[in-house]
Amino acid sequence: MQIYGLGIVAACYFAGNFIGRILGQLIGIGGNVGGVGLAMLALVIVGAKMQKKGGFSEKTEKGILFLSSIYIPVVVAMAAKQNVVAAIDGGAVAFLAGGVATIGAMALVPLLSKIGSKSESLEKVKGE
Which domain holds residue 45? Predict the structure, then answer.
């Protein structure tokens, strides 16, 4: 069932956040240190072990794929909100540094889009 896939992802998330909070307390930060990354690592490990034992059912895989497709945008949105709040609380220098980094990244888009030859198509890259 798809709910099993969601349950596996949720269990990995809770375990990762728990370990991340413990790491944060150990180093004296009082916050979560790498909880989301640890959760994703746990999901990869659980998935690899399940593949060795015969794998997930198709419906369980669909549950994991569903949550993974919405997981990253939600985490990015939460992190972006925290960064903006921290920048505003940090003063003008932090806010300015974030703005300069964002505008600099936006300015590099045209330059990066010119990398590679125009004759290279997706079919050639895939080997079709």
Answer: 2-114
